[in-house]
Each structure stands twice: as structure tokens, then as C-alpha cells.
Design brief:
The chain has 12 helices and 19 strands. It is of the alpha/beta class. 40% of the residues are buried.
């Protein structure tokens, strides 16, 4: 082999690779570039995914107060469940209303607190007001949400009727009692009720009797003296004290008077308010809308419920808490003024327990444990203003002074009877036949005049 041939062979051999490199290198380069691009794009996508995962993890860590290990991935997800529950520091308990939420003029924070609690639980519910039939006396049960109060406790012997009313409403414990004044026909049943139902607060406008004060101490009841202008929270309802401004020494004049507002309806509880105190209450009410329900003061006595007072309060419905008595309550004059003023009048003597239910939207319904018929005439004292004065004692004859026919009714029945009917053994109330016809049906046993 000559020296010259070798370079040519070498040149040929080396040229071939260069040619092939030119041919092969171009697609190889393209392939390399393509792979690089794919890897680059895949890396960016992976990086973005990892970044997003990291952001979520960091956000979760911020919410739970701890870091999430990057390598844990989906295996850490189950542990996120307990940390997702709100902690006390992030989700505080619902705040309980404070005394500052009580309307201006409140004289106590304790009573306001109890009432506020009831307002929270019963703000969307109805308010129920029950005029309990305790015969000659006063007792009113109020339930607004979980708050339950009692205004007065009737005469001695009223305890069963009051407790039955509380039990019917599902009451377990009284939130408060209101004592209008310290006369026995308003406080006789309270000592037992306070001891058994342990009210948290008692609102008074004078000094409780020693027996009642002892019961309140034993029940752990906070006694609060209130005066005109005080605002009280009764669960979903609100009450304002309208009287007394101060104590005069006369229990009736010093009666604690409340105006209760519930669902846009107003109730006025007057105790046995009379004289200048009644006039002051009337002047306050005259500045507002008519009273929807009036608890007639002093059982319909002639010493209260003046024409001036009625002109100021304009009650739509009036309830007289009264039973057989020797005072002539309710007097024809008082019933006559109520009827003349356009009030619909009911008495616990005639109608039994009277219950008002007010919805949160202001719809009001009335129910009765006996007759649903309102008083229509103011002829004489007795159960409903139509039975004559002999009703209090059960005495009477078969004809009235004017020669009209007299028949008899009972305190709880729906029929009228002839004299001597066996159904008159428990009670025997005289009534004119002309009045009985529209209120009662004739007894099928004794077949009275028709």
C-alpha cells in the first residue's frame, strides 16, 4: 500500500461519518430538542402542581396552626379531619346577653339576665298569658320562650289551680314572680308556689310579708324593688313598670303596674291600682296606642277603672279576675263603663281561665276553660255582670223583683236549670231566663222554662 492511498482511504472512511453525521445529526438534534422541550414542559407542569399542593398545604397549616410535611401527600388527608373542627379560640360560644341589653330604666341586672336568656331561646316563639281562675283574687301566668313568670298568687287555696296552669305549659321552674301588692287575695298562694317552683327573681314594690320573705330566702330568690320607669325583660316579651313612682303606704295605690309588650300586642296588669296612681298610669298609656288586653284593677271594684282611665287606655279586651264575694265585684258601674268604651269583657267567674296566645308576628288567639261568651250587660254583680247579687250566697227565688222568670246556673256548667235540679248541688247561681237563653242551653234533666 502506498503512502498516498492511505490518506485517501482514511479520507473516505472519515468522510462517511461526516456525511452521516450531517444526515443523522440533524434528526438526532431535533429529537434531543424535542425531548428537552417535553421534559421542560413536564417539569413546569409538575412544578406548578407541586407549588399548588404546597400552597394548599401551607394554607391548611395556617388554618390548623401546624405544618404539613411535603412528603406526606394524600396520606396526611385523614389527619386533617379533626383539625377542621373549629377550635374555641376561633369560634367563640354564642354570647349571653348582658344587663346592658336591658331597656333603659332597669333596676336590676340579675332579672335582666334571666329574661335575656329566655329571649334568646324563645325570640321566634309565641307568648302565652293565662288569667288563672283563682276565684276572688289575681294570678296570671306568662310564658315567653323558656322564660316563665307569675304575677300574683291568688288567695290561700289557689295553689292547685296555679300549679295546674304551670304544668300545662310544661314549666319546670319559674324565672320570676311579680307581686303587685301584699294583700292576701294576691299573695295567699305565693308562699307555697315560691317554695316549690323556686323563682330566680321576685319583683316587688314594697316589703314582702314575713312568710313570703322567708320562702324567697329558702328558694334562693333575688328580691328586686322596682319603680316607675324600670324596664324588665320577660323572655321574648318586654315589660315596663308604670307605677308606683314611690310608696304612699296604701297597698292598693302602691300596686306594681306593668305594661307588657309581646308580638306587637300590649297587656296592662294593674293589681288593685286606684286613685292618683291610676290617673298617672292612664296619662302614660294615653301617649301610646290602645291597650290590647287590660287586667281590670281591684276585681271590678267601683274604686278603680274610671271613665278617664278608660278613655286614656282604650282597652280592646278586658279581663276581670273575680269569684263569689261579698263586695259586689264586679260592680255594674265598672262593667258598664267597660262596655260603653267598646271593650270586650270576660271574667274568670263566668269564663274560667282565660288564655291569650300571641305569635311572634302579632296574631292573637283567646281560649277559655268554660264559657267563651263575653259579658254583654252590666245589670248586677256576679259571674259575668248578669247574675244578680244573690249569686254570691246561692240564695234566690223563682222570680225576680220585676216579675221576670229566674233560672239557675252553676260555676262550671254550660246549661241553665230549674230550681231543685240535682245539678245545682255544688253551686247555684241565679240568672234571669232572658239572659240565660243567649248564654246557656236548657238542662235536659230538669227541663227548665224556655
Amino acid at each position: 500500500m502506498t503512502r498516498g492511498a492511505a490518506p485517501r482511504g482514511v479520507a473516505r472512511r472519515s468522510a462517511a461519518p461526516r456525511g452521516m453525521a450531517a444526515i443523522v445529526q440533524t434528526p438526532a438534534l431535533a429529537l434531543v430538542l424535542l425531548l428537552a422541550a417535553v421534559l421542560l414542559l413536564g417539569g413546569c407542569g409538575s412544578a406548578a402542581t407541586k407549588a399548588g399542593s404546597g400552597a394548599d398545604a401551607s394554607g391548611s397549616a395556617a388554618a390548623t396552626g401546624g405544618a404539613t410535611p411535603a412528603a406526606s401527600g394524600a396520606t396526611e388527608a385523614p389527619s386533617a379531619t379533626p383539625t377542621a373542627r373549629p377550635s374555641p379560640t376561633r369560634t367563640p360560644k354564642t354570647p349571653r346577653p348582658t344587663p346592658s341589653a336591658t331597656p333603659p330604666g332597669s333596676t336590676t341586672s340579675g332579672g335582666a339576665g334571666n329574661g335575656a336568656t329566655g329571649a334568646s331561646s324563645g325570640a321566634s316563639g309565641a307568648t302565652t298569658v293565662v288569667f288563672v281562675d283563682v276565684r276572688q283574687g289575681d294570678a296570671v301566668v306568662i310564658k315567653a320562650g323558656s322564660w316563665t313568670g307569675l304575677i300574683d298568687g291568688g288567695p290561700s287555696g289557689s295553689e292547685p289551680a296555679i300549679e295546674a296552669a304551670l304544668a300545662k305549659l310544661g314549666v319546670r321552674r319559674l324565672s320570676a314572680v311579680v307581686v303587685s301588692h301584699m294583700h292576701a287575695d294576691h299573695t295567699g298562694g305565693l308562699t307555697h308556689i315560691v317554695s316549690e317552683w323556686r323563682p330566680r327573681t321576685a319583683y316587688v314594690a314594697g316589703t314582702p310579708t314575713s312568710a313570703l320573705a322567708g320562702a324567697m330566702r329558702g328558694a334562693g330568690t333575688t328580691v328586686v324593688q322596682v319603680r316607675r320607669g324600670a324596664g324588665l325583660r320577660f323572655g321574648a316579651a318586654r315589660a315596663e313598670v308604670l307605677s308606683p313612682a314611690g310608696l304612699s303606704g296604701d297597698p292598693n295605690s302602691d300596686s306594681l303596674v306593668l305594661r307588657l309588650e309581646a308580638g306587637g300586642k300590649s297587656f296592662l296588669f294593674t293589681g288593685d291600682c286606684t286613685g292618683p296612681s291610676e290617673a298617672a298610669v292612664g296619662s302614660i298609656c294615653a301617649r301610646g296606642p290602645p291597650i290590647d288586653v287590660l287586667k281590670v284593677a281591684h276585681h271590678g271594684s267601683r274604686y278603680s277603672t274610671s271613665a278617664t282611665f278608660l278613655a286614656a287606655t282604650r282597652p280592646r279586651v278586658a279581663v276581670i279576675s273575680v269569684g263569689p264575694n261579698s263586695y259586689g265585684h264586679p260592680t255594674p258601674a265598672t262593667v258598664g263603663r267597660l262596655l260603653a268604651g267598646g271593650s270586650r269583657v270576660y271574667t274568670t267567674w263566668k269564663n274560667g281561665g282565660v288564655t291569650f296566645t300571641v305569635s311572634a308576628t302579632g296574631a292573637m288567639s283567646i281560649s277559655f276553660s268554660r264559657s267563651s261568651q263575653p259579658v254583654k250587660k252590666a245589670t248586677a254583680a256576679g259571674g259575668g255582670g248578669q247574675i244578680d247579687a244573690g249569686a254570691a250566697t246561692g240564695a234566690g227565688t223563682s222570680s225576680g223583683a220585676s216579675g221576670g222568670t229566674i233560672v239557675y246556673v252553676t260555676r262550671t256548667g254550660e246549661c241553665y236549670h230549674a230550681d231543685g235540679c240535682r245539678y245545682l248541688s255544688s253551686s247555684r247561681l241565679r240568672i234571669a231566663l232572658k239572659d240565660a237563653r243567649g248564654e246557656y242551653r236548657p238542662c235536659s234533666v230538669c227541663d227548665p222554662p224556655r
